[in-house]
Design goal:
Layout (H helix, E strand, L loop, with lengths): L2 H11 L3 E8 L1 E2 L2 E7 L8 E3 L2 E3 L6 H13 L1 E16 L2 E15 L16 E7 L1 H5 L5 E2 L22
Parallel strand pairs: 1-7, 4-9
Antiparallel strand pairs: 1-5, 2-3, 3-4, 3-8, 6-7
Length: 163
């Protein structure tokens, strides 16, 4: 990426509040994750699939669209799980997490259609166990995994925005 692309990318995501809609999809004891390239000098990052809610878009439609774009999977939202406030300047987001179930498509590394071919952030899509996530040395993991004992804990009522 050249300097111009980096500046455009940073402007798209940083120094503003974003609303993100994310899905939790388990396969056995593993969760589907997306590894994102760092934004604005930030580290590489594992997180559940999801992305920004567009003005006028329904939350369910956003979740289905983001899953399709990032993973190639068609999903059905099952239920709302929790909200998480992500704040690590210059990034700030309110993230709504939903349980999802696959109903079609095929798992593949997707893309961010709002970004150019040379500015793509998605590096990898895979299922990982909590133990595998905790072994990551070069890539950070989403804050929602910090205090978990088991991935099933994601399905218990939580208040991630009250910390």
């Amino acid at each position: 990426m050249d300097t111009n692309e980096l500046n455009n990318l940073a402007a798209h995501y940083t120094n503003k509040l974003r609303v993100r809609v994310c899905g939790i999809l388990l396969e056995g004891k593993k969760i589907l994750l997306v590894r994102h390239q760092g934004i604005a000098g930030q580290y590489n990052f594992w997180s559940p699939p999801g992305g920004g809610l567009v003005f006028g878009e329904k939350i369910k439609a956003c979740l289905v669209r983001e899953f399709r774009e990032e993973t190639g999977l068609e999903v059905r939202p099952v239920r709302f799980l929790f909200m998480h406030e992500y704040l690590q300047e210059p990034l700030h987001a309110l993230e709504l997490f939903f349980e999802v179930e696959p109903i079609g498509g095929g798992l593949k590394k997707g893309n961010d259609p709002e970004l150019g071919a040379d500015a793509q952030l998605i590096q990898e899509i895979t299922f990982k166990s909590l133990a595998e996530l905790r072994q990551e040395k070069e890539v950070r993991i989403h804050q929602i995994f910090e205090d978990l004992i088991d991935l099933d804990d994601l399905f218990m009522p939580q208040h991630h925005f009250l910390n």
